[in-house]
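User: Can you recover a sequence for this backbone? Please restate the input before giving your answer.

Assistant: Of course. Working from this structure:
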């Protein structure tokens, strides 16, 4: 089967391996991407706070989802504790800022590095096991970190939670949806470009080799344990950055916000978006963020006369998420990214990136 990059319009040629591995398959695709970013830059001037809130949610959840996709979709591991690392990033950034006075501008990447360090520790035993044992090990990390959050009052504030200072740079405080949107957009662009480039690198190809056939990868000289642990570390770094943005956006971080259900939602994002796809991580995040909003809209529109239906709204949202994951596993196991590729191939939409 031809690769995605080999399906090009007549007159476009790839003469080097570097050209074949470019992020954008055509110059027009690169211009489309740049125009999309420009549109997002002016979006806050036309959108209301509700829509900006949704875009901000999509941003920080998308960063964390991409991290999970690196370990699950690209390396073939499994992680049921991603929400705990997401929370660790949020608490770490708030703690560093409150105890040292370091500006939030610097505490967000520092929180990512702290979370990465913990992820590497978790990855040491996880890098030597697989299958059900790996799932149980990562599930254990979820509950261990949750218990740590509840007990370490010096770090998280315990059951009372912790306050997170607003993002500020050069004395300018970004404490509104409009201003914080640009912070999230900056990190989304940086982290997704970095993720796409990682997959083009030697390490990224090693991740995929470990996923596709670990015995063949080992015969080729790839250190399985090293790359499995490294994938957990990078995944945790992304989760930490997303969690830090989440915490400073809300201004308050609570232990109850990082449960196993949130980990399942992250898994749903990568399944629905497409395992092993950078773009799929964002598509799955958009789907999972918008699905509860669509359910709420539907209940208010069609169930306004039913008090029971309105009271059951929270359960309807949770059931919709579970149902969506099951339906995608049955009818679209390759996710939205695969469906988008199929649509482009059918309609020959070559200008758009893969």
């Amino acid at each position: 089967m031809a690769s995605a990059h080999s399906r090009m319009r007549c007159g476009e040629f790839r003469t080097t391996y570097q050209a074949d591995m470019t992020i954008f398959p055509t110059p027009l695709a690169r211009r489309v991407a740049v125009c999309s970013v420009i549109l997002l830059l002016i979006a806050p001037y036309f959108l209301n706070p509700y829509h900006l809130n949704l875009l901000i949610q999509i941003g920080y959840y998308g960063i964390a989802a991409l991290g999970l996709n690196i370990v699950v979709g690209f390396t073939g591991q499994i992680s049921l504790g991603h929400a705990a690392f997401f929370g660790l990033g949020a608490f770490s950034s708030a703690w560093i800022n409150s105890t040292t006075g370091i500006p939030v501008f610097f505490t967000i990447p520092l929180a990512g590095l702290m979370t990465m360090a913990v992820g590497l520790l978790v990855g040491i035993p996880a890098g030597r096991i697989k299958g059900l044992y790996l799932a149980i090990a990562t599930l254990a990390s979820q509950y261990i970190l949750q218990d740590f959050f509840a007990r370490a009052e010096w770090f998280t504030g315990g059951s009372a939670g912790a306050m997170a200072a607003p993002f500020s740079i050069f004395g300018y405080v970004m404490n509104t949806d409009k201003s914080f949107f640009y912070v999230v957009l900056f990190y989304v662009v940086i982290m997704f470009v970095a993720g796409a480039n990682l997959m083009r690198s030697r390490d990224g190809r090693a991740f995929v080799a470990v996923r596709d056939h670990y015995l063949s990868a080992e015969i080729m000289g790839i250190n399985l344990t090293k790359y499995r642990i490294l994938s957990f570390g990078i995944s945790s770094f992304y989760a930490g950055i997303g969690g830090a943005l989440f915490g400073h956006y809300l201004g308050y971080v609570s232990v109850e916000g990082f449960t196993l259900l949130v980990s399942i939602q992250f898994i749903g994002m990568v399944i629905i978006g497409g395992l092993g796809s950078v773009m799929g991580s964002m598509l799955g995040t958009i789907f999972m963020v918008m699905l509860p909003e669509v359910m709420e809209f539907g209940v208010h529109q069609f169930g306004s006369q039913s008090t029971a239906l309105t009271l059951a709204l929270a359960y309807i949202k949770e059931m919709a998420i579970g149902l969506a994951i099951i339906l995608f596993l049955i009818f679209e196991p390759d996710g939205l990214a695969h469906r988008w590729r199929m649509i482009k191939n059918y309609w020959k939409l070559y200008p758009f990136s893969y």
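That completes the design. The first strand starts at residue 162 and ends at 163.
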